[in-house]
């Protein structure tokens, strides 16, 4: 199984890059992992919120495979404890899912088509965070979940 982190927006800012790289490297001890930073449409500044979400949604949906398990990150989603995230990953591995894709949407979230395609909508918190910070928290939580599944100490250090 491969874990993929997709984020709509700009490359990692320097203030999160080191942490994202650290946790991504740690995750590779459990699963292959990759980041896919999806660039904003060229004319994004001139688009309405609805049109921007539609264009971003098309880019996401065009890159998804039918069998991909899509986890959409959204503050209105289901909140999970770290053990729940670990169970989510282990259950998908047990089902022989090829790819779990964790998607961080654009500045206005995602359009209905992407939300409907998601297998799970997950909320890290009811608070809204900068997308760059979400990348770091996501990478850390996935590493934590992997360490929980292996009964390693990290979760309770």
Helix content: 40-55%
The CA-CA distance between the termini, in Å, is: 27 Å
Number of helices: 5
User: What is the level-2 CATH architecture name?
Assistant: 3-Layer(aba) Sandwich
- Mean pLDDT score: 94
CATH class category? Alpha Beta
What share of residues are in beta strands?
Answer: 15-25%
CATH topology: Alpha/beta knot
CATH superfamily: SPOUT methyltransferase, trefoil knot domain
SSE-based structural type: alpha/beta
Largest sheet: 5 strands, parallel
Short summary of the structure?
The chain is of the alpha/beta class and 157 residues long.
Topology:
Elements (H helix, E strand, L loop, with lengths): L1 E7 L5 H14 L5 E6 L10 H15 L5 E11 L2 H13 L4 E6 L7 H6 L2 E4 L7 H19 L8
Parallel strand pairs: 1-2, 1-4, 3-4, 3-5
Question: What does this entry look like structurally?
Answer:
This protein has 5 helices and 5 strands. The protein has 157 residues and is of the alpha/beta class. Strands 2-1-4-3-5 form a 5-stranded parallel β-sheet. The longest helix has 19 residues. The mean pLDDT is 94.
List keywords for this structure.
157 residues; alpha/beta; 5 helices; 5 strands; 43% helix; globular
């Amino acid at each position: 199984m491969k874990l993929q982190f997709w984020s709509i927006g700009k490359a990692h800012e320097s203030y999160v890059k080191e942490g994202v790289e650290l946790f991504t490297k740690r995750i590779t001890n459990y699963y292959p992992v990759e980041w896919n930073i999806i660039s904003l449409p060229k004319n994004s500044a001139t688009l309405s919120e609805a049109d921007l979400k539609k264009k971003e949604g098309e880019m996401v949906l065009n890159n998804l495979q039918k069998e991909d398990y899509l986890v959409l990150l959204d503050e209105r989603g289901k909140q999970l404890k770290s053990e729940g995230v670990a169970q989510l990953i282990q259950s998908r591995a047990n089902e022989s899912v090829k790819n779990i894709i964790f998607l961080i949407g654009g500045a206005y979230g995602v359009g209905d088509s992407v939300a409907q395609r998601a297998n799970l909508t997950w909320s890290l918190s009811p608070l809204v965070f900068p997308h760059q910070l979400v990348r770091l928290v996501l990478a850390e939580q996935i590493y934590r979940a992997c360490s929980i599944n292996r009964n390693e100490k990290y979760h309770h250090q």
